[in-house]
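worker-03 picked up job from queue 'complexes'. Input manifest follows; four sequence lines, order preserved.
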Amino acid sequence: MKSKAVVNYAEEKGSVEIREIDLPQIGDTDVLLEVANVGVCGSDLHQWTSDHSWPVNYPVVLGHEFGGRIAELGSQVSGWKVGDRVVSETAAVIDPNNPMSKIGLYNLDPTRKGFGYGVNGAMTKYVRVPARCLHHVPEHVPFEQACLTEPSCVAYSAVVSNSNVRPGDRVLVIGPGTIGILCAAMAKINGAEVAIVGLEADRGRLKIAEQYGVTGLVGDATEWAKAGDGLGADLIVDAAGHSSTLQIAMNLVRPNGQITKVGWGKQPCNFSLDPIVQKNVRLQGSFSHNWPIWEKVIALMASGTLDVKPIIGGVWEIESWREAFEKMHHGEVVKSVLKPA
Amino acid sequence: MKSKAVVNYAEEKGSVEIREIDLPQIGDTDVLLEVANVGVCGSDLHQWTSDHSWPVNYPVVLGHEFGGRIAELGSQVSGWKVGDRVVSETAAVIDPNNPMSKIGLYNLDPTRKGFGYGVNGAMTKYVRVPARCLHHVPEHVPFEQACLTEPSCVAYSAVVSNSNVRPGDRVLVIGPGTIGILCAAMAKINGAEVAIVGLEADRGRLKIAEQYGVTGLVGDATEWAKAGDGLGADLIVDAAGHSSTLQIAMNLVRPNGQITKVGWGKQPCNFSLDPIVQKNVRLQGSFSHNWPIWEKVIALMASGTLDVKPIIGGVWEIESWREAFEKMHHGEVVKSVLKPA
Amino acid sequence: MKSKAVVNYAEEKGSVEIREIDLPQIGDTDVLLEVANVGVCGSDLHQWTSDHSWPVNYPVVLGHEFGGRIAELGSQVSGWKVGDRVVSETAAVIDPNNPMSKIGLYNLDPTRKGFGYGVNGAMTKYVRVPARCLHHVPEHVPFEQACLTEPSCVAYSAVVSNSNVRPGDRVLVIGPGTIGILCAAMAKINGAEVAIVGLEADRGRLKIAEQYGVTGLVGDATEWAKAGDGLGADLIVDAAGHSSTLQIAMNLVRPNGQITKVGWGKQPCNFSLDPIVQKNVRLQGSFSHNWPIWEKVIALMASGTLDVKPIIGGVWEIESWREAFEKMHHGEVVKSVLKPA
Amino acid sequence: MKSKAVVNYAEEKGSVEIREIDLPQIGDTDVLLEVANVGVCGSDLHQWTSDHSWPVNYPVVLGHEFGGRIAELGSQVSGWKVGDRVVSETAAVIDPNNPMSKIGLYNLDPTRKGFGYGVNGAMTKYVRVPARCLHHVPEHVPFEQACLTEPSCVAYSAVVSNSNVRPGDRVLVIGPGTIGILCAAMAKINGAEVAIVGLEADRGRLKIAEQYGVTGLVGDATEWAKAGDGLGADLIVDAAGHSSTLQIAMNLVRPNGQITKVGWGKQPCNFSLDPIVQKNVRLQGSFSHNWPIWEKVIALMASGTLDVKPIIGGVWEIESWREAFEKMHHGEVVKSVLKPA
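worker-03 finished. Artifact:
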């Protein structure tokens, strides 16, 4: 049995195409997951445009934001049954003996490999998934939304696990992409007053962000950040993909405040970090997520507290992957979702 | 100039009456505050029924939940002006050299004295207030609501400062009085799924609690607490005034979870605390509040995130104090508010 | 092949004897461990005197504080080899899918079973151990000391993981048994000024405690606790096996301080817990330990920072278990250690 | 009455000389402090060599690390008496109404002014000090050592308040100046295994550091940092005065670890901060100290836990300030101490 898959077959820019692939063989502790929906991530786009900074095992099926039903169980899998509605974490291969894995932070195990770059991902009909990666999805949460558990977990990790937001805090998010908007939504759910700042070109995405009860700002966020007692925002979430935004964050954060950096920036910082010392500020990097974060985010979706519908720009069949990728690449939609034929 | 005041004049049960008192003399670092509204607290009722456990400086004007305008400034007061709309903290007298005061926890300075029992409180027209106790109230927050900043701060302290609620957590509050309902509201604002449990007689108050988006429960909360993964609630807030509820809390809290005790109970615990050890649970006492908590709660009221209107059962003139006290004492209203003539 | 073992064969008081047992069969993910030394725990004594409060799978080999060399490997064990010097954690059976296990707190999985009561323990020559329980022990740490990693982890968990000691803090430990003395040592290592308080009968054990640079006190600890600024100790570790010591702890802890309860007490508390509310105190239960704690404690032993020699009262052959148990039961030694023939 | 003082009289390099100054006039809430000893700080040297980055109120008496006896009391000072042995904090002028002051972090009040640059410091016989800055020094701690409370507080703030060291952690300090050595000592007191790394030229200072039980390293610290489980150090304290060391820190810190930056570096970072995101690392700036830190450090000195003698390179009379400054400037001593004639 063959299935169509969105395959990234080489390092050269644009090396993505539809290919027919075999049904994956699963191991004793794996399940075979029948994909219902899979989100397109910025990192899928980066591999497509060859603008990525991580090693890829070519050829590889793209896609790591996915959910579906269990189609088959490995011989040693317990606690799951065929037909279960699930979403999957992203660390497909980990070393269980690594000290990070031993403390539940397998997402920081330096030897890990993820879906969509290290092993075959989910932009196809069937994907092999270790049972330890699975989480139940309640019946009433549609897969089109459930497949966005992953980026929601990135946001939860940044805003909740790696930060310390308290009701009444002022939180400023820089960069209204998927992660930025979800970070803003998460800070709002956490009781903060939230603004999200972008560029002129981001007006459409800021409009979407405002559906989460946060303030959209274009350009300079100083006035918003210094409102209140004038000392700055309690937390700045830097979700923009450029080193320079850190300088804005250092200016607008209050003394003893926090900047959480979830956006990457491979450019050198052409400025000093002395304000971090002078203001006694915490600059916290945030990377991915782990098991308890997935459970909390699914609980938030199940109760309706977190609604990801506003950021979904459309659902495309896998064969129309290019349109889905391009819409997102050009900022016409915040998030594209695919579904297997 | 004389003003009417609700005076608790002796230790005997029922020793409360309206008296005419002189205009207070203020010191160099005080202001004279013209009271707009003052809430009735459970502790005012306890002094009235002589069911209290703290020393009282008889005779004393009752009332420590209050707001109004500044009528006069002490000679060394800076940063305030006559006419400013303010609410006041409750620790009227503190030792600034006490180690607790030195770290901003003057509310735990063992030598402190509060309004309404240690010094004259606000159930009258004018009250003397140290400037360090004041917080600005925005124009659009009416004093009838602003005077409930104090119990809201008790709730913020219990749920936010002394606990560690995260979005998606399950929080169970025991005891639907003013503090319990505000704790439930605060946990909800913090992103939790929240239930509040009471007795049959509490059905009316649970109805009011449900306006905050929380689930009201009568009797046994086990099913709610064990919903989800079956291990229990992440946080139990014990806001009931009886020692026995701790036993319920120990049963329903999850391993490694927290119980925050804001309710008092002078009865001996006729049970063992071994479950706290066995489950590795944190039992956290929570008492009053301090400066940053007041600022956060006012920000929550100003943004409309926290709305105290649902718990206000009515506003009475000071001369009708007895009706206001009795309505609350009998559970007919959650919170009574007074206003000077 | 048969080995002698200290077997607890029934619930009746005194139901412990030497029996010959078969070599354990190991599973795919287990190792066979050849025991070098095994400590006697208070809970072994409690099962012997039938003064315990947990269910026991009779007949069972006692002993859960142990170390030795790997004698055989299960077919799926990786990362270990025959001859490795190891100590073992205590949670012999856990549910890997339990939410507590998923976050690395398998020690709080309610379905877990431990060595020495749930499955056969280590007071014999060979014991079956899941590979996930193992930790490497450096060559220069003798097994007579390494077998005390387990109680040292109980202390680390109580004083470090479940408390928040800072250099210069005042820490008072109540109860100079093995756990109390190790808690005092751990608080000292953490930079605190430490005292440990006991009864007249504890003078010998307090003398041993003083070898860790802590102050031994007999009777009333008030003067020591209130030295300094007079407000009380930052942390009280209640390691005594009686409910009543909590009342002492509540009196001597400073406002906003912490009491960590590692000692059990099945008696009802015949006092109110109001001081916990009034002082805004954290009462934290502490139970067992998990993987990272074991690694830290072994590092402390390997560097010589933690030296358990002072508490070892002697090493007995397994057949002399009764003498080893009795010496400890009567308080003649702090800790007895056994070795297989 | 006139006294000799080390005065920094202008911005030009080298603008420091001995001048005769008048006895300071004190205000109602101040004391007049008779200086016993005053330490020379790197920032005093920077003002001398005009290599500083903060505004200076010329002419100004240098010196902010000092202790002595109270010579006179302002009219409203309570809790102190003439003759008391004291050390003083550094924030000479603060706005008590600033939100940072209100929460006890007056050291981060942006309007604050410090001794030795904002107001006259202590390199003279008498200095005016607000009573709120004072801390008692026990009789048995000599002033030559007590005057180093201030840099010890910088270290405590960096390593204890702004970091989270646990016994058994591996802590690497970069930069063996006064602050770096004291940070290493503090981490050691906190139970960590500690190394401190410097350059060839730092061998003498590393030798002094080793008196605190820490490992001195020259050049590359990779091997030390990766010893143990190979994942890197739990905490890196960057106490070097150059931006480039942050890159070393990012390489050597373990995933989910912390880098605490107490050293300034006005150079741009010519590298990306992506490793902070990738490793989920906390980069924490640490600036100065506040009241509770001073109390803890004095307690550590009083108990002998912290001994600053090893870093004191000599005590000079104020008129020999130049020799004291130069010895330190050239790295011949770690710390120079002055005393008034």
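worker-03 released lock.
The two ends of chain C are 14 Å apart (CA to CA).
Chain C has a mean pLDDT of 97.
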